[in-house]
Every structure is written in C-alpha cells, then in structure tokens.
Fold this sequence. Notes:
This protein is mainly beta. The protein has helices at about 1-15, 245-255; strands at about 20-25, 40, 60-65, 70-75, 80-85, 110-115, 125-130, 140-145, 160-165, 175, 180-190, 195-200, 220-225, 230, 235, 260, 265-270, 280-285, 290-295, 300-305, 310-320, 325-330.
Amino acid sequence: MKKYVFLIAILLMTMVVSAKKVKFSLDLTGISPNTTGVHVAGDFQAAAGFPADWEPGTTSLTNEPGTEIYSIVVDLPTFTKYEYKFLNGDQWYDVEFVPEQSRVGYNFNDNRWIYVDSLANDTTVVGPLPFGGNSPVGTYLLRFKVGMQLQPNPNPEGVHVAGSFQGWNPATTRMYSFDGSVYEYIAYVDINTANFEYKYANGNIAGNYEIVPSGCATNGNRSVFVAEDKVLDEVCFSECSSCATIGIFENEMLNKTLLYPNPASGNTFIAFNDQSDLHQVVILDVSNRKIRSWDNYQNNVLQINNEGLNKGIYFVQIRNKEGVYSSHKLIIQ
Length: 333
C-alpha cells in the first residue's frame, strides 16, 4: 500500500513541476464590456481544464476591482507554445482584430501567441493587453528574431535573448521557433527608454552568449532604437545579417581552413588559407560554453595547447575580418 501511495505522490509532484500559472489579462479602457461577458479563447483551454479548445464563451475573464482590466489565471503545461485571442462577448463575432506585429504570422495565422516555460516559479503574466492592441499601456512591443541554422550544436536548454530591457538575465526570456530555424520572443519595453542593447544566447547562461561581430556591435552587444512597436529583422546567431545571406561563405571557409591533428591529444593547429590577415577563433564545449578565444589573431597558423581540456567533443568557430564564418568539430582524446 505504501508503495502505491509513494508512486501517486511522485506522479503528483511531476504534474506540479510540469505546470505553470499563466495570467491572461485584458485592458478594456475606453471600451464598454459586453453584457455577455469578457472571454479568452485558444488552444490552451482543454489543457487548462475547460471543455474544449477555441470555445469563445467558456473561459471568462473577471474584472479587477477599481480598474478596467479583466483577467484569469490558469495552470498550463510548460515548454509549450499556445495561441489565443480575446473576446468582448461570447461569440466569434465579438473577437478582437490582432495587429500584425503580435500575430503568429506564419501561414496567414492571425492569433496571438505565447511560449510557456518553467524557468521560474512565478506567474507568467500576459498583458494587460489592449483589446485589439499590441502592448500594455506605457510600453512598446519589441519582437526579436534570430536564425540558428548555422549553429552545429543546439543547446537543450533552448535559445534565449537577454539585454538592458530585462536586466541581462539569459535564463528568463526563452525564445520559440515556429519553423525550427528562426527563434522569436516578444518583449514589452518602456516607452521612456529608446535605446536598448541585447544579445542572443544558445543556452541559458552568460557563457552561451553569441559573439557579436564588430560591424554590428555596440559595446560588444546588439542595439536597437525603439520609438514605436517594432519587429526586428531576422539575424543569424553571431552574425550581422540573416543566415540565408552567409551560408555560401560558410561553405567556402570550411573548405579552406585546416584543423589538424583531429582527433588530438596534444596540440592542435589551425591553418588559415583564406588570405585574410585577421581571425577570431572561439572554442565551445557541447553545452556551448566558451572555453577559449582569440580575437584579431594575425598569424597564418594558430597553435592550440589542449592541456586542460577534458576528453570529448568541442566546436571551433572561426571568423575572419571580412565576416566569413565556419564551424569545425574538434575531438580531444
């Protein structure tokens, strides 16, 4: 009997760990609430305990006393993307028109979306969003996009963005990919602060940050000026442009750079045969943590002393001053 009680307890603990509280919050300032109520509908409803998904009249929002804000808190499974819309009423003709900047945006999908993770034991607050609007009062929407197609070792902890808009914490803003290549995150930034710096991270610690090329760096970071709701162009991780524009250059560099011996037990050598006189070299472990780096290396051959490196697989990323990039696998025996 005790055995079964123990198993049930473990199961309940697992269910609690995999769920997170999410607050959907709507600002109806200047809009009269419908006599049939204010609602939210989406593909989260069944998971939250309601009869079915995309039912317009079953998930009611409650007015927060003394305000024109309506909200509901639900428990949802984590590490999942959800789509939703608000309704001022309980029928589909009462649904809001979602602005383009806030939409899923793929395959003509005009729903709002969130990605729920469990990196913190707090409540994920959605909003309060204006009915048919992009961002809470006093903020602008800022939508980040980063391409990860050229990264050889995606981090199981996910892709993140961190910056001055959220306190430079790479563990709190996990991005989501609709296509498996480009990752996105929607932030709401203070309208009184126009300039923001940020970086993408292939993982959730500072050691996973990208290296921003000097051609598009501000203080070693990316930067953006925000004076309205803004969707950033997709940029490739550790690059100044989209991955589509640099894929050809990567292949050229792969054919020209020699890494030997490989596997290695002592020293490893990198021979630069691309005629560039400056190179940046970074060694990462399988968790994408930076182990060693060389900036503006000027010689044709770089000798790497493998002493202190544990046996296993590493990734050597190389970029010359022209922006040509390559990544190589290094095995230490």
